[in-house]
Amino acid sequence: MEESQDQPIPTTEPTPEPIPESTMDPTPESTTEPAPEAPEPTPEPTETPIIVPDISEVSYKVPHNPRMVRVIAGGVIAVVTIAGLGIALKALGNSQKAINVTPSESSTNKSENVETVVTESEKQTLVKNVLADIKSAIVSVDDSSIPDSEQEDIATSIQDVYDTNSPLYIPSSAKVAVPLEKSFGLQISASRALIRLMADQVKAKLSELGFVEYQDVKQDLSGNYGYINRENNIICGAFDASSNTVTFSCGHLSWTSPEKIALINSLAEAYKEKEGDYPIMISADPADIKDSPYQPYQKLTASVGNSAGLFYRSDKTADWVFFTATQALLSCDDYYAESGARHAFQGEKCLNRSGSVTEVSEKN
Description:
Blueprint: H1 66-99, H2 103-107, H3 120-139, E1 157-162, E2 168-169, E3 178-179, E4 184-189, H4 192-208, E5 212-218, E6 225-229, E7 234-236, E8 245-252, H5 258-275, E9 282-283, E10 290-291, E11 298-304, E12 307-313, E13 321-326, H6 332-336, H7 339-344, E14 349-351, E15 357-359
Antiparallel strand pairs: 1-4, 2-3, 4-8, 5-6, 6-7, 7-8, 9-11, 10-11, 11-12, 12-13, 14-15
């Protein structure tokens, strides 16, 4: 089937063939309406526009046959309509592309997905504010209710202290409790009766501030637990009311060292290998690892609970071995009973069988 609309429109006037008078249409030429001029489409900035010819620039003579006029006008209108439809479809496609943003692009603009970063200065301010509230609670304690029989001739004092090697905390990456790298605290001296009243006030104030008892580890020899606020990531030690002097400290949960925790975990495994279970806490620093005179052995003294824990290894790549925990000078025979310890702790002070202080040596 022939498609007449695909034929190019002539740009010069064709010479019309003579039409017999008997077949001439009596309708005057002036009554015919010219074909409407199509509006120029607005080109898309990001797509190649479809070029629609401007029919106003095409030179042709309207035939005298009105039916032919209607055919030509209808064809032009159809071309313009199809072109306009094509542009509209392309514009719709582009708008859909703009709407269908990938999740990764859209999520970067959502403020709720951005994790709040707390600066070091802000962490210290949070901790110090807690201690300021605790200090106010302590100062407000009324000691008038203390009976004379419990009065002691001790001046009450409250001092700010720093880096108290507490409170203890068990990070998710650690196998035992570790002391925070730093902390801020209060050192309080008063009569035991007044200390007990202060302890009640401290507990009430911590509860008011959103703290709960931290029962993962006991904080002192009296078996007291500390307190933790997981919303602000602050932990405080225990307030031990068993003596005249109390050191109460708090710190931020982020104040731990990954390097120290890695060493502590290896020491905890060595302790468990010998003792059958992990200790309550270990405090150790890679900087404290020493080379033994007996190369390539190494030794390390760490805090294990309230004792000095002695560890050694045969070289830098070997596993640590737990030797013993002590609070006093060991006898030389203790070292001599274990060849690895004798090598590693060569030159350390020890007590010989006569009770004199000497050094661990390779020869008895």
